[in-house]
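Bug: token stream looks shifted between consecutive jobs. Job 1:
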Amino acid sequence: MANKKKLVYGILFFIPVMFFFFWLLRPAFLGQLGGTFKPREVPEPYIVLKDFLYNQKIDFSTLWVPQKQRFGFYSSSQPWLSLGDWVEDNKCLKPFCSLKITNFDREHFNCYPNEKCYPADASFLANPNSLTELNKLKVKYVIIPYDSEGEIFLYERIYDANARKKLEEFIDSIPWFKKLTVTDKIAIYEVP
């Protein structure tokens, strides 16, 4: 008889605890979690870019300036390279370090003192010798991403569309890059 009482009390305790547990997890089951757990859809421009790159059946690399966006496409035959891996304010690795153009510094692009100056980082692209290095790396396209999540072009931790605009205007001014119109939000340049 004592064992039956313990079993009944155990069940009476277990049922509310499980009900409370499932009530706490309800947002997870209904897809109502935000932040890190919020499901994200791939933006349409990145689907168009993926189709454009995937339909080319040759091996090449893409150079993402200043860095690859989370939805950017790559494959084993079409790897991505990120400019941020080579060039930043306080680091510059070979082969691009020696190709930087000193006239294109922070002051030339009117960058704020504590702002990341993306055009100055990419100044080596204006050097004609950079084409040789890009061809060695099999880079066929230079891509400026659409920052759909507001993670790349930041000024004081807030998305700054002007930073992307400065970078795109700079690369537009380089005569040997041909700008392609694949999608309106992602700037794609063909490397000769």
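Job 2, same session, no restart:
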Amino acid sequence: MGQATLNGAILDDGGLGCEYRFVYGLAPTALTFSTPWKGGGLRTGDTFSETITGLHANTTYYFQAQARNAVVMNSGAVLSFYTTTPPGPGPPSPGMPGLAEVQTMPATLITENSARLNLLVGNDGGFAGDCRFEWGVTVDYGNVTVWRGYFHTGDTIYEDMRGLAEGMGYHFRACFRNREAEVWGQDAVFNTPIPLGPVTYIDDETLMLLEEVG
């Protein structure tokens, strides 16, 4: 998984010391991840940065710097960056845990307005972690479930989704995070069915009459 260093600056501290963080995600309107608040004594003109990890290769990410003091919080403009393909890994170091991995499993219990999302923790990377799902009508997702934990290699987790629109295709993918990394599963799709209209039942006697008329 890749990483990037995000940078920001305090343009106006409002007369009070500030702390900072970054929010980021896969769409400018879905900045669903955040770094922890840091600092507390930054003043006008001070710069700050944060390195984020667990990023997908060849992917556009959007991010925004945020600063707050004891009175107010302000956000900067939404910017973007593109991750490249990292070089292939060398041989693993002795005693190091494997890379964390999560698998998006097929949705089940699909009805016109609900579905169950499923995932499998393929590898916890040596540390228990939290899981959730990203979902929406496009690969930008735009919605997330709450983080739930702690889970280990081999654990299966599900989340029941309700209030879905009938006859609609939904994208979703699994997310796993622990103290070392945050990883995502592959994109998956399910379609909610369209309910059938009213059904007319014809008994044998009516069917015989129809055949005679015909």
